[in-house]
Fold this protein.
Amino acid sequence: MNSDAVKSNPTTPDPGTLKPGTLKPETPRNSHGPAATGITSTPEWRALSDDATSLRNTSLRKLFSDDPHRTGTLTLDVGDLHIDVSKNIVTASTIRKLCDVAQAAGVLERRDAMFRGDRINTTEDRSVLHTALRLPRSETLIVDGVDITEEVHAVLDRMADFADKVRSGQFRGATGERITTVVNIGIGGSDLGPAMVSQALRHYSDAGIDSHFVSNIDPADLVSTLANLDPARTLFIIASKTFGTLETLSNAEVARQWVIDTLATDPETQKSVVAHHFVAVSTNIERVTDFGIDEANIFGFWDWVGGRYSVGSAIGLSVMLQIGPVHFREFLHGMHQVDHHFRTAPLEANAPIVLGMLGVLYTHFFGAETRAVLPYSNDLARFPAYLQQLTMESNGKSVTLDGSAVQTGTGEIYWGEPGTNGQHAFFQLLHQGTRLVPCDFIGFAKPTADLHNDAGASMHDLLMSNFFAQTHVLAFGKNAEEIRAEDTPESLVPHKVMPGNRPSTTILAPALTPQVLGQLIALYEHQVFVQGTVWSINPFDQWGVELGKTQAQALLPLLTSGAPGASTVDGSTSDLLARYRKWRGR
Ligand code: F6P
């Protein structure tokens, strides 16, 4: 073997020498604007920056060999979650520096303000109290003279009462049939949370209730869902915080007509049919009653619950119907456990702070643009999509709290697919591509389903062996020498080198229970908060989605008639609209 040939080949990386800095520019790629202000001008940030410079010149192989106790010190435990951060490109000292930055940015004060109910969502002048949704009944939280806990539990009790009646068959459809199907109509936070949880906890369905979720204004969504349903056995939950969302109202109107057309014998029975087959979850009682749903069939929540933080509110009604009130309360308890941890754990043991700050580290000092979330559980297939709204609608901002332009990069781009499917799709890029993509691997010791192959191997064990293998290979790779030792033809050596030094966090839990799922959700919610605070942005508004909505309304007449407002449309859009009309035969 001609090792010189390989040595002189600049494309041959080696795990021992490849540094994250060789994947990305040395200077933070996301640094916006010339002047460093805010957090980036603090001594804590400078200390972190110095640390990051030396980290870019080391490798995970070296970090592991330098510190045999590394794994012991770089793990976190919260609730049932065991979180191993040792395969991140950090030392214990980096974690300290990350925590110093969090503290300097005011994460602790702002966290306390959030839990207290201060109006930290300044652009909407609202409190941010999704954590109050999971407070135990025994804890009091008074905000503006109102006992929030009492209100929360009053709604939870009504939900439980209703869920018990539906699940037991006491509440029936208009023709006396048992309700066996629930269709949640909602979008964004009024869909992604319950849809994700419903799938994740499908093995807790114990009352013969099947759940469906319709969100898209594309009629294909509703049509394909209704195709196999029996209206007499179907309950619709119209879930919308504002009850003003076009997609939801359009789908709800069609669903209402579908039920009336089949079940209402004359106009007089319409009201009663709607009462037997429609309930709503909203903060806007007036709009819901205008729609024709009786006040008795409305489950309320509050403006201090952001849509993407609302799965623990009445927005989770479809989940409660499916898994029952007891399991739903376990789910809330899991969230509360992480809330408590976030509130009380010392900085360096505080999982949301450490994980959120790792995202800050990679964003600013390693040029990472994205974070892959890779659940090794098919039941968590919708978790990455859920996190996309949670994290990207929250932290996709470029203006700070005082209205000035941010001086740092913000919101990580979240994406992912369940393992092992992702391995056969995009893992090639994770292992050998030129981009650094920090990954969160989420796995469970106990399966929700297991089968054994011909050789008697447990399929869950096979799944999890892939889970453990991937984080190992990402971190440590395989160098040219090791590949040559396998008698690999020299020409193939550079292609087979696995650079390693690619960071991952492993989150391992005993099983995917309601409680564990609640813990996972709150773990990510609070990371968003930590990052938003460090970046000095407001994670709780979403002004960026409004213009597209109004623009769509304004364009609608141009799709149908091509008439008014055409002059306000740019040339490209105007041309596309003309083609659309032509192909639509207009
Ligand atoms: O368009 C974004 C958004 O406002 C999300 O923040 C929200 O979760 C979703 O729309 C649905 O809103 P609503 O629950 O009011 O229908």
Q: What stands out?
A: The pocket of 6-O-phosphono-beta-D-fructofuranose is lined by residues 187-190, 240-242, 245, 248, 307-308, 393, 542, 545 (CB under 6 Å). The first strand starts at residue 75 and ends at 78.
